[in-house]
Design goal:
3 helices, alpha+beta, 8-stranded antiparallel sheet
Length: 253
């Protein structure tokens, strides 16, 4: 005769209760561990994003047409904040800087909004998706740096730097190098900046009566724009045209 298979007897009494409690504790611990891991990942991502935004790169959008055709209105650019404190700023670089005083005039304050929108704005600014202080910054191209003598214009209607005339391929179509004459020597640790759309750019030429006399001190520079990140159809690396400035001699001491 075949032996009858041994059947497990159902657990009864206090042992059954203990087993169920153990299962519930394990389940609770799993959920708790999952929640803790999720919170740690989110917080770590925010901290890393905050550090990157504070010390390495930032995102800005373009509100005007002063940098046509290089930058279009509403383009979003990524800025390297290691420039100029660690990496030097060079002629031809597209630079983002804070208003040195009197360039932008008064800017309207953004409405505070409700608590939820404020939280959303804070998080998106921390990770670099938005720049709440965007309207307090400007974007131009560096034409002269400390010690340079920048003059407009020579007999061929070209800007000269330290006596060397330059041809500027980045200018907007139909733009002259400048319709305003100037002859300046850039102070140490400062920059002479101009928009690529020279006929529609309130740049260094138009602020001789401001505290900085039209020059942008190094202390106001946020960094160098190096890529257009959005919209994706406009994605490109931003050139600083080294060949334009390669033959410019060093400024006279």
């Amino acid at each position: 005769m075949a032996k009858k298979e041994k059947q497990e007897k159902p657990i009864k009494g206090p042992f059954k209760t203990s087993r169920e409690k153990l299962r519930k504790i394990k389940s609770k611990n799993f959920l708790l561990a999952f929640l803790i891991d999720t919170v740690v990942i989110i917080v770590s991502a925010l901290v890393i994003s905050f550090v990157i935004k504070s010390f390495l790169i930032r995102s800005f959008y373009i509100p005007s047409g002063s940098m046509f055709d290089t930058l279009q209105i509403n383009d979003r650019i990524i800025v390297n904040q290691l420039v100029p404190n660690i990496v030097p700023l060079e002629r031809g670089d597209v630079v983002v800087f804070k208003d040195p005083g009197g360039w932008l005039g008064s800017t309207p304050e953004k409405p505070a909004g409700n608590a939820l929108s404020q939280i959303g704005d804070f998080i998106s600014s921390v990770v670099g998706l938005t720049a709440p202080d965007n309207n307090q910054h400007l974007v131009k191209r560096v034409v002269g740096k400390g010690g340079d003598r920048v003059i407009c214009c020579d007999l061929d209607n070209r800007i000269t730097i330290n006596g060397k005339a330059i041809i500027e391929p980045y200018l907007a179509k139909g733009s002259n190098p400048s319709n305003t004459e100037f002859d300046v020597i850039v102070p140490k640790d400062s920059f002479w900046v101009m928009g690529d759309n020279r006929g529609n750019s309130e740049d260094s030429r138009y602020h001789p009566d401001t505290p900085g006399r039209g020059f942008v001190s190094k202390s106001y520079v946020v960094g160098r724009a190096f890529v257009i990140s959005w919209p994706f159809t406009n994605f490109t690396w931003l050139d600083n045209y080294p060949n334009v400035f390669k033959d410019v001699p060093a400024p006279k001491p």
